[in-house]
């Protein structure tokens, strides 16, 4: 399953679920800051063998405040998306956001 995930400061761990709170198996997860026209960053990494838990790397999460991010998950049955508020923190260590509910696009 590729290289092991090396924890870096300000990683955010999310579990993807659908509207029925069923685990969402994503083949790819992309993230970008909401409200910006920039491209999606491929800065998310699988954290579980079943591809329902993902780690969003720290490059998007500079210290200070919080920001809305758009998550785009591609699955075998379609594309799901959500806008989630992610805290940007300066402390080291990972943040577990728990589950994030995505809706089909």
Main attributes?
Immunoglobulin-like, four-stranded mixed beta sheet, four-stranded antiparallel beta sheet, globular, mainly beta, 0% helix, 105 residues, 46% strand
Short description:
With 105 residues, this protein is mainly beta. It contains no helices and 8 strands.
Give a written overview of the molecule.
There is one protein chain. The protein is an all-beta fold and 105 residues long. The protein has one domain (12-104): Sandwich (Immunoglobulin-like). Helices cover 0% and strands 46% of the residues. The protein has no helices and eight strands. It has strands spanning 12-17, 28-33, 44-46, 53-56, 66-75, 78-87, 95-101, 103-104. The strands form two sheets. Strands 3-4-1-7 form a four-stranded mixed β-sheet, with no helix packed on it. It has a four-stranded antiparallel β-sheet with strand order 2-5-6-8, with no helix packed on it. Strand 3 and strand 4 (53-56) form a beta hairpin. The termini are far apart.
**Strand-residue proportion:** over 45%
Average pLDDT confidence is 74
Our Rg estimate from Cα atoms comes to: 13 Å
Order of the strands making up the biggest sheet: 3-4-1-7
CATH topology: Immunoglobulin-like
Structural class: mainly beta
Task: Note the overall shape.
Answer: globular
- In total, the number of strands is 8
Itemize the secondary structure elements and their pairings:
Layout: E1 12-17, E2 28-33, E3 44-46, E4 53-56, E5 66-75, E6 78-87, E7 95-101, E8 103-104
Parallel strand pairs: 1-7
Antiparallel strand pairs: 1-4, 2-5, 3-4, 5-6, 6-8
